[in-house]
Design brief:
Strand order of the largest sheet: 2-3-4-1-5
Order of helices and strands: HEHHEHEHEHEHHHHHHHHH
Distance between the termini: 51 Å
Strand content: 5-15%
Structural class: alpha/beta
Number of helices: 15
Helix content: 55-70%
Length: 384
């Protein structure tokens, strides 16, 4: 199949030629256009990048590159983008989106509402969007993003046109990361493999030696668990490492946001915050705390995904499949575990990891959830 040209603003959408063709056709042909879209695909497949390239093409006049760049920078007045930094999208946020949806475009051809984490809407929040999706204004387009259409209510799915993204190959992700960052191809290949094709995570691993070391330490700590005491100690280390990882991601951003806010309200660097603007500074601090909670839970989920990959390797070895391992650096340890355990025990641990991921997403205490999981790793039995 012919590859779609990588023309602006689509050039950063990587490896999704069929999806790009579909959306470019909709931009060019009103008969192929609809008012609400759902972009689905695995984490790291480029859902958000595609959504904003689509928004840029819809809002700007053809060839108006400055306007397109403004959309891609999330600063165009006719773009409303929501990417929650919290556990769920709040109903108040959904109501604000619906209000914005009924404004006419101010400068562009369309008003576009992008919801990057549509799978984080509870049923009550999803219902807020229904009326806007059922009776949309003529020049408003909704673009929802989620890992799968199954993550949304049937009533939402029935009102959108779905674009399904492909999962990229490990070798392709490695080449992309090496080209983007200039890192050693061997590190890019290892990072793509460890990230399980997640482009954003692969790039972070490739460019952050500390993140690579934390991942390796975590997996080796779990491999060393032999009893309940080991489980408790390893759980503490894992939660601490996930917290350190989350802080590394958010610290610079938090400080930059605070500095930008103080500069905007005229407070000089190092000066005391006047009482008149304390409410704004405190509101930003509260938002950053909520984001830190989300970032920690995302960090715990990344750890659990890494553990899932490790025990997936064990079950592969137990069934005689050694040609497609993710954690090849741990080959000797994984083979020893595969020989010592039964496949049933490995599958039990994989089930426990999946359950732990769901529990953490539902606000279970991370340390207790990880402890319970590692007790199952140590004993081969669940607590239930």
């Amino acid at each position: 199949m012919e590859t779609a040209p990588a023309t602006f603003p689509w050039e950063d959408v990587w490896g999704q030629d069929d999806a790009v063709r579909m959306l470019r056709a909709a931009v060019d042909d009103p008969l192929q256009m609809t008012h609400a879209w759902l972009i689905t695909g695995p984490p790291g497949s480029g859902r958000s990048t595609l959504a904003h390239a689509f928004a840029a093409s819809l809002i700007a006049e053809p060839g108006d590159e400055p306007a397109m760049r403004q959309v891609l920078a999330r600063s165009h007045p006719d773009l409303t983008a929501l990417r929650t930094e919290q556990v769920i999208i709040r109903i108040e946020e959904a109501r604000k989106l619906v209000e914005r949806a009924y404004f006419s475009p101010s400068l562009g051809r369309y008003r576009v509402i992008v919801v990057e984490d549509a799978d984080r809407m509870a049923e009550r929040t999803s219902n807020v969007l229904l009326k806007a999706l059922e009776e949309p204004p003529e020049r408003t387009v909704w673009v929802l993003c989620a890992p799968s259409d199954a993550d949304l209510l049937p009533t939402i799915r029935s009102r959108v046109r779905t674009v399904r993204l492909k999962e990229p190959e490990v070798d392709d992700v490695a080449r992309l990361i090496a080209a983007r960052t200039g890192v050693d191809p061997a590190i890019a290949a290892q990072s793509a493999r460890h990230a399980q094709r997640h482009i954003g995570m692969a790039q972070r691993l490739a460019t952050d030696a500390d993140a690579r070391a934390r991942r390796d330490d975590t997996l080796r700590a779990v491999l060393a668990v032999r009893g309940v005491g080991d489980a408790v100690e390893a759980a503490t280390r894992i939660v601490q490492a996930a917290g350190d990882d989350a802080k590394a991601i958010t610290a610079l951003r938090d400080e930059a946001e605070r500095s930008d806010l103080l500069r905007m309200v005229g407070v000089a660097p190092g000066a005391a915050v006047p009482p008149a603007v304390r409410a704004q500074v405190n509101a930003l601090a509260d938002e950053q705390k909520r984001r830190a909670t989300r970032s920690l839970r995302d960090g715990i989920d990344r750890v659990l995904t890494d553990l899932q990959s490790m025990f997936r390797d064990v079950i592969m070895l137990q069934y005689g499949r050694a040609d497609d391992l993710i954690n090849t650096e741990l080959d000797d340890d994984l083979r020893a575990l595969a020989a010592a355990w039964s496949p049933a025990r490995t599958l039990l641990v994989l089930d426990e990891i999946a359950l732990t991921r769901r529990n953490v997403e539902r606000n279970a205490a991370p340390a207790l959830a990880i402890e319970s999981l590692l007790v199952a790793v140590a004993t081969g039995r669940t607590s239930s």
